[in-house]
Design brief:
0% helix, five-stranded mixed sheet, mainly beta, globular, 5 strands, 72 residues
């Protein structure tokens, strides 16, 4: 698989860093697949650019949505 796109954010959840990544992967037949990336291993190299903002971004569980939402 080839990494076509990787977007997401880094935040703290209960004090620990956590990544939330969306990925698009391509196969040898030029089909693409997208979704959340939970774990990956690379064989050659991956170029990752990060933009750092002032302050801290964290996540907190919101019972209304049933998810850990960003708090800025």
């Amino acid at each position: 698989m080839e990494l076509v796109s990787l977007l997401g954010n880094m935040a703290r959840l209960e004090g620990d860093p956590v990544a939330h990544c969306h990925v698009v992967l391509g196969d040898r037949e030029f089909r693409t697949f997208g979704g959340h990336l939970f774990e990956a291993t690379t064989s050659v190299t991956v170029e990752i650019f990060m933009r750092v903002f002032e302050g801290e971004v964290s996540r907190r569980f919101d019972a209304n949505y049933g998810a850990n939402l960003l708090t800025i």
